[in-house]
């Protein structure tokens, strides 16, 4: 992989888009064909060894759809990063379709229920807790113990 391509991907927190790359487009195409870059979304790339990394996938989602909102366990992990990151990144988006590693729903989330953490849009703690309620109520109980107010 060309050194300026590697530098560009490092500057962009592990994720690069075609329009952000200042070099010739054929370098990206060559790196994808050679297995040195993985396509996460059309025009959004990461190093293959990091394509399963939760943070890299979250950055890729942000670049593919800046209005997307992380939901469920993904939002929970961003707000309270305890334990292992979820295998699938879950989000509400109207622009993208689910693919391996990403589960999307076409669901409107009012801006009043969206907060920003670490540059990512996530559901508010109350909505996240409600999204995660299972029949036993375990996640709701955990949220209340952490001090989440369910206004």
| Total count of helical runs of at least 4 residues | 6
The largest β sheet comes out as: 3 strands, antiparallel
- The termini sit apart by 51 Å
Number of strands: 8
Elements, N to C (H/E): HEHEEHEHEEEEHH
Task: Supply Rg.
Answer: 17 Å
Structural class: alpha+beta
- Share of residues in helices: 25-40%
- The percent range for strand residues is 15-25%
Categorize the overall geometry. elongated
The unreliable regions are none
Reading side by side through the largest sheet, how are the strands ordered?
1-3-2
Mean pLDDT across all residues, rounded?
87
Structure description:
This protein is of the alpha+beta class and 151 residues long. It contains six helices and eight strands. The protein has helices at 3-11, 25-33, 54-64, 72-79, 125-131, 138-145; strands at 15-17, 38-41, 44-46, 69-70, 89-92, 102-105, 114-117, 120-123. The strands form three sheets. A three-stranded antiparallel β-sheet has the order 1-3-2. A three-stranded mixed β-sheet has the order 4-5-6. Strand 2 and strand 3 form a beta hairpin. It is elongated.
Features:
single chain, 151 residues, alpha+beta, 3-stranded antiparallel β-sheet, 3-stranded mixed β-sheet, 6 helices, 8 strands, 34% helix
